């Protein structure tokens, strides 16, 4: 466990209950933790998609959504929004806690 794991757990805890992260996504949430540290509340849906793409390339390099964000359908783009909002909420919580 590293300093990124508690941040990844915080992001998970900020997800809405309707969000269904893929199984075995610990490495994905560590990438989201990097986004939290690097961008905080400025993280975008596109940033989340880029992190997901880096992760998915190691899981299924033929996945249909491994394209730039702007080439995704609106429905697929919308799937990134809860994760971006969870990262922004985690950043707000850390700011309130003085971290």
Describe this structure in words.
The structure is a single chain. Helix 1 crosses helix 2 (26-39) and helix 1 packs across helix 5 (81-97). This protein has helices spanning 4-14, 26-39, 45-59, 74-78, 81-97. The protein is built from five helices and no strands. It is an all-alpha fold and 99 residues long. The model has no long low-confidence stretch (mean pLDDT 96). Helix content is 63%, strand content 0%. It is globular and about 40 Å long.
Secondary structure elements and pairings:
Elements (H helix, E strand, L loop, with lengths): L3 H11 L11 H14 L5 H15 L14 H5 L2 H17 L2
Helix pairs in contact: 1-2, 1-5, 2-3, 2-5
Task: Write down how many β-strands occur, each being a DSSP E stretch of 2 or more residues.
Answer: 0
Distance between the termini: 19 Å
Measured by DSSP, the beta-strand proportion falls in under 5%
Rg, Cα atoms, Å: 13 Å
- Estimated helix fraction: 55-70%
Output mean pLDDT: 96
Number of helices: 5
Unreliable segments (pLDDT under 50, ≥5 consecutive)? none
Describe the main β-sheet briefly: none
- By secondary-structure content and strand pairing, the structural class works out as mainly alpha
The general outline is globular
Task: List the secondary-structure elements in sequence, H or E.
Answer: HHHHH
